[in-house]
Amino acid sequence: MRITVVTLFPEMFESALAASLLGKARAAGLLDIDFVNPRDFTTDRHRTVDDAPYGGGPGMVMKPDPLIAAIESAAAGAAESPHRVLLTPGGRRLDQSVVRELAARPHLVLVCGRYEGIDERVSQLAIDEEISLGDFVLSGGEMAALPLIDAVARLVPGVLGDLASTHEESFSDGLTLEYPQYTRPPEYRGLGVPDVLLAGHHERVRSWRRHEALRRTALRRPDLLRRRSLAPDELALVQDDAAVLPASRTYLLLAHHPVVDRTGAEVTSSVTNLDIHDLARSAATYGLAGTIAITPIALQREKIAHIIEVWQEEAAALAAHGRAAPASGVPSGHRSHALAAVEVRVSIEEALAAIASFHGAPPLLVATSARLHGGPPTLGFPELRSLLARTAPERPVALLLGTGHGLAERAISLANYVLAPISGQPTFNHLSVRSAAAIMLDRLFGTGA
User: Which residues pair with 3 in a beta bridge?
Assistant: First the structure.
């Protein structure tokens, strides 16, 4: 593989590229790294490569002429056009999937910017892709090019002694951190090696490593797991691990009391069939522990029980006619699956006590509202996702939603936190509780985000 670096400071690369794996790969002819300096393409005696920006502002901008000439020289005489990459904070975020794409290219040209950046016309005329290491700023593209070169080189056949090493490293599947590693001695300063690694059972070791990789990712980088759905075999490994699946210890609480009406008066709202159905199905879709409907009115509690009973009877009838899923005895995807996880309680306090009794720990209560409140601290969705990842796995979580025109202040005062309102256009903000719940659950527990 060939990598050409377009840089004003080629000397910055000398030590790093001469040592360790990169040095050996270059010596073995597996990796050809060369440099082009834009100063060699200037025409004035000062070898000027920068100029003041149009429109004013601080700093200098790299001129298009010498930079484009340097980039074009890298492709001179090549049978195939190289892939030209600009290292810039505004580019696509570098991750392992991008590294794999780049490693498949026979020739990369890495363009290292300096000063306040490069003339935009260079990007338009001579760059195929812009790549960023992350949301921070470096002095120049050279310090970004080095880790990119190292990451790409590791995937070049022959550079690593054991190519299988790349299959089990962090991000080898694109979205999972690597499992914990241990070596001799078996005990060090009171800390031992997990028994499963000492027993020599290869399949159990494989399962343990996969579980620990998922667990470490959930605790340290939960954002990665939001980008994909777990495979069935992965779900089987972690189904009882609330650290990996925080939704499995989370409950939806739908309060019909105390809530407010349009005048702000505290009232008890009526139970609706649609609310119970849709919240139960949303909770089941995202793997929540359950849904608890709250109303002090006995007739309303009986109504909810009747709704659940009707769908369970239908499921049983379908199962009796051979339309059931083999394992469950209930038709696959039938809403009775979701409604079976619905409970009814008289008050918010009673619902919280029931959750605490089941889990052996009081739940973290997060209230929701379409308007901002004083009192408990307000969290945005990213902050709440982070909090869920940091919360002890044995502690349950309760998301409290209000019907009517929202939760009364005394209900919100019970919460540890209030979730920031869901908002679109600020002139209208009146989602149904069903819509708000679905959006909220997707932002917290959905994949593909």
Answer: 33, 108
Residue 97: burial class (beta carbons within 10 Å; 0-12, 13-18, 19+): exposed
Residue that is written with structure tokens 């060699």 in the block = 40
Put the strands of the sheet holding 83-93 in their side by side order: 32-36, 2-6, 107-112, 83-93, 129-132
Q: Are strands 2-6 and 107-112 parallel, antiparallel or unpaired?
A: parallel
Intrachain domains 2-166 and 247-445 with the same fold: yes
> Does 337 score more than 50 pLDDT?
yes
pLDDT value of residue 269: 97
What's the start-to-end Cα distance of the chain, in Å?
34
Integer CA distances (angstroms), 438 to 1, 169, 280, 284, 294, in order: 48, 35, 10, 11, 19
* Domains in the chain: boundaries: 2-166, 194-238, 247-445
Contact 12, 142 (CB under 8 A): yes
CATH of domain 2-166: 3.40.1280.10
Residue 157: exposure state from Cβ atoms within 10 A (0-12, 13-18, ≥19):
exposed
CATH of domain 194-238: 1.10.1270.20
If you ran DSSP here, which 8-state letter would residue 416 be given?
S
What predicted TM-score, i.e. pTM, was given to this entire model? Answer: 0.76
Model pLDDT, residue 162: 67
- Output the six-digit token pair for 101: 């794409």
Determine what percent of the chain is predicted with pLDDT higher than 70.
Answer: 93
CATH code for the part of the protein at 247-445: 3.40.1280.10
